[in-house]
Amino acid sequence: VDPFVRKLITEWRKLGLPFSNEVFVVALSGGADSCALTMALKELQERQKLHLRFVLAHFNHGLRGSAGDKDEEFVRNLAVKFGFEIVVKRGNLSSVKSNLEENARNARYEFLAEITENLNAYGVLTAHTINDQAETFLMNLLRGSGTQGLSAMKPIRTLKQSSQRKILLIRPLLRWAKRYDTESFCRKRSIEFRLDSMNEQMNFTRVKIRKKLLPLLEEFNPKIIDVLARTARNLASEAEVSSELLKNFVSSDLRIRDLKSVSSALRQAVLRAWLEKELGNLKGVNSVHIEAIEKLITSRKSGRIIELPKGICIEKKAGKIYLYKN
Amino acid sequence: VDPFVRKLITEWRKLGLPFSNEVFVVALSGGADSCALTMALKELQERQKLHLRFVLAHFNHGLRGSAGDKDEEFVRNLAVKFGFEIVVKRGNLSSVKSNLEENARNARYEFLAEITENLNAYGVLTAHTINDQAETFLMNLLRGSGTQGLSAMKPIRTLKQSSQRKILLIRPLLRWAKRYDTESFCRKRSIEFRLDSMNEQMNFTRVKIRKKLLPLLEEFNPKIIDVLARTARNLASEAEVSSELLKNFVSSDLRIRDLKSVSSALRQAVLRAWLEKELGNLKGVNSVHIEAIEKLITSRKSGRIIELPKGICIEKKAGKIYLYKN
Q1: Which positions in chain A touch B249 (Cβ < 8 Å)?
Q2: In chain A, fewer beta carbons within 10 Å around the N or the C end?
Q3: Alpha helices for chain A (secondary structure H)
Q4: Closest CA to A90 of A57, A61, A55, A118
Q5: Are residues B240 and A249, on separate chains, in Cβ contact within 8 Å?
Q6: For B49-58, what is each residue's pLDDT tens digit?
Q7: ipTM of the complex
Q8: Which of B220, B235, B239 shows the shortest C-beta gap to A142?
């Protein structure tokens, strides 16, 4: 067995995915990553390691004319070669619209969710690699999307809550495969994957990160892809621990004594988490409100009640703070 | 008053620094940043906003021969021009040694701490800017120094605990000034600061980040310096909140019931914080030990006591866990 295939089945086990009696949709663009994933799944099926039904799914955005049609032709031939079912959808996105990339992604994910629901499948498999993790981290960092946005993509997340069950988005290559691995596995099996398939061309920032920025970063550190992906993963798990600790803190009544004994930074974080729990979200809550509640807690002189917008009142009573609506 | 000078006094107030009856040491390399800081302090002194004694400090590493001597001559002339006292030290670092940059930095900080202690000064002022914050963030990110290493430099930290008092390292430009601001303030005052002074040349990675990487990143986002500095600051404050929450969690006895009700990620973080509190540090503690304690907590079948290296025992008793040494 090729190491690529062996690593895939190991990850399959680690992710707790089923080995039989299920349907999986495989997102196939025609690039090296998704071709390698498709081939490896085929080999695991042939070797009786996986007793699953795989349905390939290709979205032809209809934006590149003949190049897009060649991608489609290529994946159709691949499906025939491997004996997999395939579903192709042609989009009718207009290339003049703004937010082209976002529209294309939304249309693609809607298509994937729809097939998965129709087939009552377990989930969608996408071929994101460590490289995608690193590139996404850089994109979010450069965009300034806040520390939450720097958190890593996860190997499994919910794509959609269907009427019957949760539709999962599964990335079985994300934690171990690099683009180099997918390309060399394709070459070993003489699969001439499509270069610059639509998905890759769509985002000019991502392409520039890949072609220009990452080569420069590699001059600083040859292991930069791993470093960035690991950083994203660590930030994600620290954020989870922190958010769970905050939820823990606000799970019971908020005692003035406890709130007084912590730093202002922590007190503000706790108050935000508490308001989010009580109100469902933090819409319309800003730092002025948080500071007003802080003053209610820490100052003896301040009154007993303060009023926030939308008739929300915060009251200090019997050593605790309460929220109610007027 | 020039906006540069006004912003400095505003920050001085925000940082809670004294306005009179104290001595401050000013680290002066001869570059634009430290020249701008020195000039602005002089103007605040002349305008009677600050009634403080400033002593300039310049470290001549003795590594560049005549170029280093020109830096020294330049800062000596500047001191005469401004009527400030100046202390110069010539180092005898060998350029063939490894870790040249680290040795130079250590020698420089030792020198600064020594003067500060001799003068019984309040602290050392350095001229780090938002650009330094952004560059340091990138250096640590590229080096893969872990999420802790991505946290921002702080405007005030302890440089050394002297016998008499805490010696502070203060960065009064860090939160508001960019290199552009220091350079243009120098130009306004016709101060011909030294280009590529020793400190700037010393770190080739930092120079390459400044000259090659940041210009490329600016093509992605013209505000990249601000974005990176803000990211570093946000990561620092989130890390502080998280570490305080963990300390809070382990400040009282660890109850099995509480530990069972949280996620494994949080449980492990809590156990690490608890061991660090009990043992003073985490030397010799690795993930195998953490997982063993976790099993003690979550599994009914496991025994009552487990032994870690160095005779450290963890015991489950009366619904709590305890640590003692054999």
Answers
A1: 245, 248
A2: C
A3: 3-14, 32-46, 66-82, 100-118, 130-143, 146-149, 179-188, 198-202, 204-208, 214-220, 224-249, 256-260, 264-279, 287-298
A4: A61
A5: no
A6: 999 999 999 9
A7: 0.87
A8: B220
